[in-house]
Specification:
It is a single chain. The protein is mainly beta. It contains one helix and 23 strands. The strands form three sheets. Strands 3, 4, 5, 6, 7, 8, 9, 10, 11, 12, 13 and 14 form a twelve-stranded antiparallel β-sheet that branches. The protein has a nine-stranded antiparallel β-sheet with strand order 18-17-16-15-23-22-21-20-19, with no helix packed on it. A two-stranded antiparallel ribbon has the order 1-2. Strand 4 and strand 5 (67-75) form a beta hairpin. The protein is globular, with a radius of gyration of 19 Å.
Length: 354
């Protein structure tokens, strides 16, 4: 059976122009991949040019009460994008709010010990904050609605010292060793509220408990970059199950050894093998997610499909976000079989031209 062991993380991901590739747990104190020697075609270029092609993303996926969704910040250097999207698990109704933020020094922090991602626009107030010295994580937002969507307010807190808490760091060639992609995954229990409202009606809300998965990516992008990330969050037989499975054209050439795929069962982490993801009948029909090791055999059935396109100067981003359910089997490193049926999750497919 496929096995990829976790090792102690390096102090710095990049040292002397080379990266420390591997699968690590816990996580390094900084997710900083600057300093690679000649990352593009082996041709030395000024550091500000190669650093400009480093793009960052942080996503906080949550399953809380009646809702499942995510809060996301993307750093495109010349501008930033913030988004909150959530679906009602019973009806499949989607509410999505996003905003473009003007250039600033950094939209996604480098430190894993403490950090803040924030959008303070008048109609979009969104904040992700973490502080390891106090084992504290907070996601909060207040979003003003319009003619087609209600206003929304949410606040989720994790003390990060619970039984579900785990940290993993994946440092991979992208796709060769001259470039690097780093991914931090952190699972946690959350407690909070999420409700929608308008002028005439305020939905009753109460404090509820749920689970969440934080994902931070930082990588050297190609001119055209394509990624698909599958996220599942739920319970099976009383156990908290979370997984993140991804593919893309910036994945490592040796993806058996280097990839970001992981499964968490009640705080126990398993590094998963690479997969092939197909949707032979279109994005709105069933997606097939399989590996060659017999550890992943899933079918994803879409319930709600939405797209978003952003064009700014020479940069174009096209995203397809899909809520649905997973069915199939996942296998842990200990041989435990997790059978999923009507298991909630979502898929994010992104295509970026820079």
């Amino acid at each position: 059976m496929y096995k990829r062991l976790f090792s102690e993380p390096p102090k710095n991901i990049v040292e002397h122009g080379k990266a420390h590739f591997g699968t690590f747990s816990p996580v390094s104190s900084r997710i900083d991949i600057k300093g690679m020697h000649a990352p593009y075609a082996g041709i030395p270029v000024p550091a500000f040019i190669s650093n400009f092609r480093i793009k960052s993303r942080v996503s906080f996926g949550f399953n809380l009460g009646d809702y499942i969704g995510y809060t996301e910040f993307i750093d495109f250097k010349i501008f930033g994008l913030s988004e909150v999207t959530f679906w009602n698990k019973e009806t499949g109704k989607r509410n999505s709010y996003h905003s473009i933020m003007p250039a600033r020094r950094r939209f996604v922090p480098i430190k894993t010990t403490q950090g803040l991602c924030a959008c303070y626009q008048r109609k979009r107030k969104i904040r992700l904050f973490w502080e390891d010295s106090h084992d504290f994580f907070k996601c909060e937002f207040r979003l003003k609605g319009d003619d087609v969507r209600p206003s929304a307010k949410g606040k989720m807190i994790s003390m990060r010292n619970d039984s579900l808490h785990t940290d993993m760091l994946f440092v991979n060639p992208a796709p060769t060793s001259s470039r690097v992609a780093a991914c931090w995954l952190s699972s946690m229990k959350i407690r909070g509220t999420l409700h929608t409202f308008n002028k005439d009606y305020v939905q009753e809300h109460k404090v509820e408990e749920g689970i969440a998965l934080l994902c931070m990516n930082r990588s050297y992008f190609k001119f055209h970059t394509n990624t698909i990330i599958c996220t599942g969050l739920g319970q099976v037989r009383g156990k908290d199950i979370l997984f993140s499975i991804s593919v893309g054209n910036i994945g490592a050439a040796d993806d058996d050894k280097y990839n970001n795929n992981a499964l968490i069962i009640d705080g126990n982490s398993t590094a998963l093998p690479p997969v092939v993801i197909t949707h032979p009948f279109g994005v709105s029909q069933n997606w097939i997610i399989q590996d060659t090791e017999g550890m992943i055999d899933l079918t994803f059935t879409p319930v709600s499909v939405s797209t978003r396109t952003v064009n700014v100067i020479l940069m174009r981003s096209h995203a397809t976000n899909i809520y649905g359910t997973f069915e199939g089997i996942l296998l842990s490193k200990d041989g435990e079989k997790i059978v999923l049926k009507n298991f909630p999750g979502f898929i994010n497919r992104n295509r970026v031209r820079v």
